């Protein structure tokens, strides 16, 4: 009884396709009925005795089977459902857009071998811990550039990150606001909203002024500086972005903290695709539809 009460169609508008099917079937029945054609000119009491072979008239015609197949196909497409099941996307990890600073300051060797190399190492560890999650890559200096749209292929992300260098950046400076805008666009098609990971050493005061307008997905900032380094600019930028700052550590503590932040689903708990959804049962009608189509291989049904 519970299943009966929950029964519904996921796409009920498809049931309207039954109306033209019924109309065409009725028109065909009327046009092929010999009794209906002669009833206008012959007395109904005499009609059965005057028509030869009327008793051998097919009771079930190809049009009847076609109408039945149309009904079955329409019901299958309409999506009958009465049970719920976990969404296939419920266990998927949220997407992330990695914003990597690529400036001459990132070549400083206080984090051996350089800050940029340490960023790549941390990125490799994060990608390994989030295997299968979609990751986009944005690089910035004086201008921001989308290096790679969101993809689950972590190997490609890491290879392109290794190819980045301050020498190939067309403009000097720090356009972090532009990089965040590109990151938001890269995450626009993500079902779970996603988040942004900024990997930078320092943030210039003039760049901080533009960050107040850069609110969007949750931002995590990995500060790529050695212990004891002045991080006041990083703290100001984090406040402007509403970001959580995580300092770089020689072990995996920072990686674990970042992964926890990126995998957090609190912000996306109500996004479509989470939890459960209705299990459609229309595919069970496909074998019946296939059997009905076999009748069209009979001689004389389609062509004499």
Describe the overall structure.
With 304 residues, the protein is an alpha/beta fold. It folds into 2 domains: 106 residues, no CATH class; 168 residues, Rossmann fold, CATH 3.40.50.410. The chain is built from 12 helices and 9 strands. The strands form 2 sheets. A 6-stranded mixed beta sheet has the order 5-4-3-6-7-8, with helices on both faces. Strands 1-2-9 form a 3-stranded antiparallel beta sheet. Strand 7, helix 10 and strand 8 form a beta-alpha-beta unit. It is rod-shaped. The two termini are 49 Å apart. It holds the Pfam family VWA_2. It comes from Bosea thiooxidans. InterPro entries: UPF0353/GerABKA_families, VWF_A, vWFA_dom_sf.
- Note the gap between the termini: 49 Å
- What is the helix content? 25-40%
Number of helices: 12
User: What is the second-level CATH architecture of the largest domain?
Assistant: 3-Layer(aba) Sandwich
Q: How many structurally independent domains?
A: 2
SSE series: HEHHHHEEHEEHHEHEHEHEH
What is the CATH C-level name of the largest domain?
A: Alpha Beta
Beta percentage is: 15-25%
Q: List unreliable stretches of 5+ residues.
A: 266-274
Organism: Bosea thiooxidans
Domain VWFA: 97-201
Protein name: VWFA domain-containing protein
């Amino acid at each position: 009884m519970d299943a009966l009460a929950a029964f519904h169609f996921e796409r009920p508008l498809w049931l309207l396709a039954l109306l033209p099917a019924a109309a065409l079937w009725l028109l065909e029945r009327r046009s092929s009925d010999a009794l209906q054609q002669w009833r206008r000119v012959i007395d109904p009491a005499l009609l059965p005795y005057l028509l030869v072979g009327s008793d051998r008239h097919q009771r079930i015609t190809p049009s009847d089977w076609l109408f039945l197949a149309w009904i079955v196909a329409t019901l299958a497409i309409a999506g009958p459902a009465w049970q719920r099941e976990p969404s296939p996307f419920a266990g998927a990890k949220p997407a992330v857009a990695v914003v990597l600073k690529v400036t001459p300051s990132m070549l400083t060797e206080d984090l051996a071998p350089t800050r940029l190399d340490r960023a790549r190492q941390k990125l490799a560890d994060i990608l390994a811990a989030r295997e299968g999650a979609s990751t986009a890559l944005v690089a910035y200096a004086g201008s921001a550039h989308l290096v790679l749209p969101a993809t689950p292929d972590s190997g490609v992300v890491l290879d392109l990150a290794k190819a980045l260098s301050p020498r190939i950046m067309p403009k000097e400076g720090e356009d972090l606001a532009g990089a965040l805008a590109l990151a938001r666009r890269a995450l626009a098609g993500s079902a779970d909203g996603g988040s942004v990971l900024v990997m930078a050493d320092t943030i210039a005061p003039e760049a901080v002024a533009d960050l107040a307008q850069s609110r969007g997905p949750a931002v995590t900032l990995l500060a790529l500086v050695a212990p004891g380094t002045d991080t006041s600019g990083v703290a100001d930028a984090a406040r402007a972005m509403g970001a959580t700052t995580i300092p770089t550590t020689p072990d995996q503590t920072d990686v674990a903290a970042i992964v926890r932040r990126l995998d957090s689903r609190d912000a996306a708990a109500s996004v479509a695709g989470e939890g459960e959804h209705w299990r459609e049962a229309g595919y069970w009608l496909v074998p019946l539809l296939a059997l009905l189509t076999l009748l069209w291989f009979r001689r004389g049904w389609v062509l004499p």
